[in-house]
Fold this protein.
Amino acid sequence: MAARLLGEGKGVEQPHSFLPVQRMNGRVTPSPSNLVAKLAIYKSSPRKYSHLRTSVRICYTKTMLIAVDTGGTKTLVASFSSDGSLQTSERFETPKNTDEYIAQVGETIRKVLGDEAPTAIVVAVPAIIKNNVVVIARNLGWENFDIVSALKPAFDCPILLENDANLAGLAEAHALPEMPNVCLYITVSTGIGTGVIANGVISPEFAQAEGGQAVVTHDGELKTWESFASGRAFHEKYNMYAKDVTDPKLWQEIGENIGLGLVAQIPLLNPDVVVIGGSIGTYFDKYAEYLEPFLRAHLVDRTPEVRAASHPEQAVIYGCYYHALDRLASEAA
């Protein structure tokens, strides 16, 4: 996510298409993002829908979930009720100084909470994360930043830290008509991030993967995918944003540059569907006509479905919501 170089944010709205149909235990069952609907499903046939029992328990407890989407220029803090309703949201300029960041996040969380107490807080960062610590966030200049420990004294609830692309991928996977076995999510913005969702959860095997740092051949040289296909690279080369592009040849370049990275990722992960988000996700219809034939030409055995993110600007905060539910459900089990 980081700075949204390829398009401006459009504010936060509640995306109703994050209410998917999900395949569970071999059955296709409604799996909306709100637990109230899950409760109704469970009550209709407790034996048939026993797999929803853990999630249903949360319905009987008033919850307030906090999502923090940390970007390179702005940070969004939003609160959700347990039924998936977006309550309040606030944005602020992302401080590069870590102490200032913690102070601003804490102050904004308290503001959006009002008189409520948080049940869980999920912080999304465009970073490599290990053991709940930011190892490195290149676009923010952070290294070995323990956000969780810094926030813990102020909030008596679980605090989770996760890569923003993983969380966006989680939300977008839930927005699909049917949950795939493997969903590869690509966010193309200032940089390029990847998230792998396996059977509806963030894949632990690939949670720390940095797809944007994959090395591929471009213009006869070995380069990282991010170095030539990201929003920053495009802006540095042409001094324009995607919203300014009218030349079909530039859209072709964008599509094929994205394709170069995907032909390296897809054979490794064998995803059922690839979702492209980040700021460039809003322009998918402009470059898809070049991307899709490029993939078919270079992936001779199997080309997965490739589609635009349903809500490229809101996916991260809804991913935070799903991630918090997963944590609460696992604790209630």
